[in-house]
What we know:
The complex is a heterodimer.
Chain A: E1 16-18, H1 20-26, E2 29-34, H2 36-45, E3 51-54, H3 61-72, E4 78-81, H4 85-97, E5 102-106, H5 108-113, H6 117-123, E6 129-134, H7 148-153, E7 159-162, H8 166-180, E8 189-194, E9 203-208, E10 212-214, H9 235-238, H10 247-265, H11 268-274, E11 279-283, E12 289-293, H12 296-310, E13 315-320, E14 322-324, H13 328-334, E15 340-342, H14 351-360, E16 367-369, H15 382-396
Parallel strand pairs in A: 1-10, 3-4, 3-5, 5-6, 6-8, 7-8, 12-13, 12-15, 15-16
Antiparallel strand pairs in A: 2-9, 7-14, 11-13
Chain B: E1 7-15, H1 20-33, E2 37-44, E3 52-60, E4 75-78, H2 82-85, E5 103-107, H3 115-123, E6 127-131, H4 133-141, H5 147-159, H6 164-176, H7 191-219, E7 229-231
Parallel strand pairs in B: 1-4, 4-5, 5-6, 6-7
Antiparallel strand pairs in B: 1-3, 2-3
Amino acid sequence: MSIKNMTKEKNWSGQTMVSTDYLLFEAPREKHFMTGSEVLKEAMKRCTVDASVSYPITPQSEAAHLIGELWAEGYVGTYFRGENEFGVMSEVAGCAMAGARTVTTTSGPGTLRAMENFPMWSGTRIPCQLVLMARGINSPLTIQPDNLEVSFLLETGCMIWYAENVQELFDMSIAAFTVAEMPDVHVPIITAVDGFFVSHTRESVMLPADDIALFPYNPYKAPLPPIDSEMPPGRFLRDPFVMKSNYISYATHASWQWEVRSAVDRSRPYAKHFLNGLAHVTGDQDAEIVFVACGTASHQAKEANRELTKMGIKSKVVKLRTIRPFPHAELLEATKSAKYIFVPEFNIVGWLEKEVTQSLYGKSEAKVIGRPRVAGGMSMPVEAILKEVLENVEKGA
Amino acid sequence: MAVDKKRYNMRISGLGGQGVVTSAHILGSAMDNAGKFASLVPFFGSEKRMAPVEAYVRASSQPIYEVGEVVYPDIIMIYHPQVVTHGKSYTMPFYTGLKRNSLIIINTDVDILDADDTKVLKDLGTKVVQFNATELAIKIAGTELATNMAMMGMVLGITKLVSKDNIEKAVRERFLGNSFVASGGTASLDSAIEKKFKKKEELLQKNMEVINETFKLADSIDLNTDALIIKLDA
């Protein structure tokens, strides 16, 4: 397939352009059996993506490779490999500042190598998407799933969404562009999944046809105009305030940082619409035992909920779909009935437990228990969750 | 060993190059074709021949939420005796976490379980099915590469999770791709592709013959025996 001129109805690869609502909620879907990496290719195929930059690192290499195939097939405008992850994220910024809808993927050590770029992304208000396939952080060296790296990204000013499974990765990564590109939001978005548990797990997934795709990104609605030969990057990049060394530099920096966080907050109503809520609740509404989790941990918690139901014990699972913005109101509402809040996590530090505790401080009587917690690529068998619940609830009774 | 369970958690251990992940994929697709639920997770370290490879398949008549390594399996499949004899698995011993009254299928015609293993497995009420899947693959398909089909055929033959039609569709999808239409377009395929297709169609045929044979073998098994090890002649 070759790149064609875009018309009013068709994009450059000949796909009919449709609204995000149609693509996500109305278009008929068919069942497929796919891995997370494969489904990301399918999602990007339907997003009229202008640019993608890649660099190999397990477990996201396959996804990056498959987006490259999309370029070869004529669905992605440009695609190239960066020098390393720092280069990749800088090049993503360049593409996005020039007005391109841009996507990249990375994992664990790659994320950390690129770190300086993420707050730079949000500061320049580019709506690019990073699909993060979480992997452990060295050392010791590991390639296995562990989401410690997400804690490093929490205060970068980027939105962070967390997909539970292959299906959610598909839907989220499409919605991600739409929400990130809203003129009153316009900040980068990190769509996270757990590496291997989602990237390499094959399961059934419902997909709309591939002859439809999103309308292209319109950079002329951006809060900062796209760069071209006459328009330099934002003045703060070319002539940094620090050069002025006066009170204005402090005030501008502070207000700009504040505005980035406000922009993330303004994404709430859009995310609520396209994700069907910032949090998703399953199980018994009035349960005293509540699991609060994101990603794979919420998958495991749902399995525990099913086993507890068999034992005659009520529980519910609150899955957080967005981490930035953090769904404070949704969490508070969903944990009203809670006496025990378990936060199962795939990392050693319990960053989500800290988020939950902080969010509910002074508002909830429930005891927050940051367990079970596994790391380094360990699985979290449902048996481990049940043990934790039964021990704690017995003690408390 | 109850075979009508709603949910099976399978741990498949083999060596790089044996098609552990491929057969897990086919197994999952076959469940999907049967309108049931499955998810599979591959697990490996260095990607090379003879290095340990595992795949975890969850198969159920209900939706599956749990992902990741199967820590407490109710079926273990061992594709190569070295998994047991050389410890080429991600858990030691290879049956760590095995649930009570479960099933182990080993590709061997030599007894490789030592006295300690035997005692533990007997106490757990395990049934161990032993047969030389590689020999069967060579005999019927003319290649040891069909060992994975023999192993998969055996577990599906015993558990009756899906029909042979479901399996054939899954094997076809895996080797010929979803988009292939056996009738219309064939004439216009150029000779190179035609030749390749002929080989692939043969491959499919041979794989199905191997699976049919293991289904027959599986039918001869009586899981109600008191013996720990059930030996089958391939």
